[in-house]
Amino acid sequence: MRRPPSGTPFGPAARTTTAAAGRLSHVRWIAGGTGAGKSTLAIILARRHGAVIYRGDLAQHTWLPRCTPRQHPHFHAARDEPPGSLWDSRSPDEACGFAQRVVAETFAFEVEDLLAMPADRPVLVDWFGNLPSQLAPLLTRPDQAVFLLPTPEFRMAALRARRNVPVRSLVSWGSRAPESTLAKRLARDELWDAEVRRQAAAHGNTVITMDGDRPAGELADEVAARFRLGTAA
User: Fold this and answer.
1) Would you say 228 and 140 are in contact if contact means Cβ atoms under 8 Å apart?
2) pLDDT value for 161
3) What is the rounded CA–CA span in Å between residue 218 and residue 228?
4) Per-residue pLDDT at 162
5) What's the whole-model pTM score?
6) CB atoms within 10 A of CB 42
């Protein structure tokens, strides 16, 4: 896969992360591949530890009015594409590269949002679009972030379940959901996972393989310990 120059922040994102160093020690990052159970883990941890969840999939809608064609060309272009068009017009490799460019362009928005939130309790960031190299300048220690990567079987079950929810299916696959589109998405996600593993190894971040064998509560205990969230309520 051809890697775009988005492995580390640049431009506005670089300036934002430099200024934010040391100010987000209360933030914990849950990232990784699609269909890995990030949201489920975030909900359990938030309930147990009184944390606030920052949901990247919802926050990105608030980024749209803030983007410009000059500073955010890929994100700005994506806003005008119909649902599901990502898979119609791009190969898995192209879709993965496009996703990396979009998250590089929008990372500064995410950091700005987090800096504006109260810091009186933990914030859990639940977002597919955070790569280890982007987060590295913001972490006071590697275990502030965990990356969940699903096995192929775990991901397949998750994506098929999403296809049964009309709203989520429309957003992800557009007006149709053929098996060929699912195959493209799975191939794109394998490329994304490989990049996450490569970057996580380089930065000493924790990668957890999600295969469905462990109870969610047990996984939450492990992650809470890594995050130093304290005793569960």
Assistant:
1) no
2) 80
3) 15
4) 75
5) 0.86
6) 23
d(CA 177, CA 170): 8
- How many structural domains are present in the chain? 1
Domain with 68 in it: what CATH number?
3.40.50.300
Q: Considering the domain boundaries, does residue 100 fall inside one?
A: yes
Mean pLDDT, 10 residues at a time, the chain of 233 residues:
42 54 90 95 97 96 94 89 74 93 95 94 96 94 96 91 62 60 89 97 97 95 94 43
Half-sphere CA count of 223, side-chain side, radius 13 A: 31
**Quick one: residue 83, left, alpha or beta (phi over 0 = left, psi -120 to 50 = alpha)?**
beta
Among residues 133, 147, 204, which one has the least CA distance to residue 28? 147
Residue 87, domain member (yes or no)? yes
Domain with 85, as residue range(s), is 12-227
